[in-house]
TrEMBL record:
Protein name: Neurotransmitter-gated ion-channel ligand-binding domain-containing protein
Biased composition (Polar residues): 29-39
Signal sequence extent: 1-18
InterPro entries associated with the record: Neur_chan_lig-bd, Neur_chan_lig-bd_sf, Neur_channel
Entry keyword annotation includes Signal: yes
Annotated segments matching region Disordered: 22-41
Highest taxon of the lineage: Eukaryota
Taxonomic classification: Eukaryota, Metazoa, Spiralia, Lophotrochozoa, Mollusca
């Protein structure tokens, strides 16, 4: 009986030893795979894990002093896709640039192999719910909105690509063009793209438009159906909405929106305007 027990013990120990012998080459293989990662990749992985460890993406960033979060906005026009003069609707393709600072996403590059910039998936960090407010139809969904660029000082750059359908008004031709417009029967449309957030009021976010014009440097096709971009302008407006029609005291705080105005004309005198191709 004693012999049998000790024999079982010997067999058990032997099997543990053999399985540990069997396991150790596997462990070494795992090690060699992780060794293939460059120090930069390892630093970026460690940084991504550290930044997101206690990050609550539904909470908006804001300066410690309680002032609103500044969001810089600009719009780069890529294409003027179509102009519907009857319905006064234009379709455009553009990039909406938004930059802000999220202090939770800052780090010291010397702690991370001098990594200064990280591409972060937009579904893992806070992104403002800024949308086209005067949209028409459902052509406003971002084409791509997957990545934001984050720099070590906590500044975030997010630029969704947008296909927009917007309503326009008939414009007033300038005096020198009006005579030609009358002869040719040409017309002008003023199209305003209003971007803002329905949820964050002016105490929480502050929209800033550093440039007074839209960016045309990314433009691929600036003319559609004989219409050309004549001019653009950019400004920030406020609007106060009544939340509860019967209670004047419960006025909602003002909402801000960045207004990007595109003036297009099919008067041939503007043909050379921005259309340098
Ligand atoms: C926003 O634009 C201003 C210039 O108008 C600039 O000083 C500031 O650094 C910008 N902020 C961010 C987060 O890019």
């Amino acid at each position: 009986m004693k012999i049998l027990i000790s024999l079982t013990t010997v067999m058990f120990v032997a099997s543990v030893q053999s399985s540990s012998i069997h396991l150790s080459p596997k462990g070494q293989d795992g090690q060699s795979v992780s060794d293939n990662r460059s120090p930069g990749t390892r630093a970026r992985e460690r940084l991504m894990n550290t930044l997101l460890a206690n990050y609550v993406k539904s909470v908006n960033p804001g300066p410690y002093d309680g002032s609103p979060l500044q969001i810089n906005m600009s719009l780069s026009l890529i294409n003027l896709d179509s102009v519907d003069t009857k319905e006064r609707i234009i379709e455009t393709h553009s990039l909406l640039w938004m930059t802000w600072t999220d202090e939770r996403l800052s780090w010291n590059p010397s702690d991370y192999h001098e990594v200064n910039k990280l591409h972060m998936p937009t579904d893992s960090i806070w992104i403002p719910d800024i949308d086209l407010l005067n949209n028409d139809g459902d052509a406003n969904k971002p084409v791509s909105d997957m990545i934001a660029d984050v720099t070590s000082d906590g500044s975030v750059i997010y630029a969704p690509e947008l296909h927009l359908k917007s309503l326009c008004e008939t414009g007033q031709e300038a005096p020198e063009a009006a005579r030609i417009a009358r002869i040719l029967g040409s017309s002008e449309l003023v199209c305003k793209l209003l971007f803002g957030s329905w949820t964050y009021d002016t105490t929480e976010i502050k929209l800033v438009t550093p440039s007074s014009q839209m960016d045309m440097s990314t433009l691929i096709r600036l003319s559609a159906d004989n219409f050309h971009v004549k001019s653009t302008s950019v400004e920030v407006d406020h609007k106060t909405f009544n939340c509860c029609p019967n209670d004047e005291n419960k006025k909602k705080l003002p909402i801000q929106f960045a207004t990007f105005t595109i003036v297009i004309s099919n008067n041939p005198i503007y043909r050379r305007g921005y259309n340098t191709r």
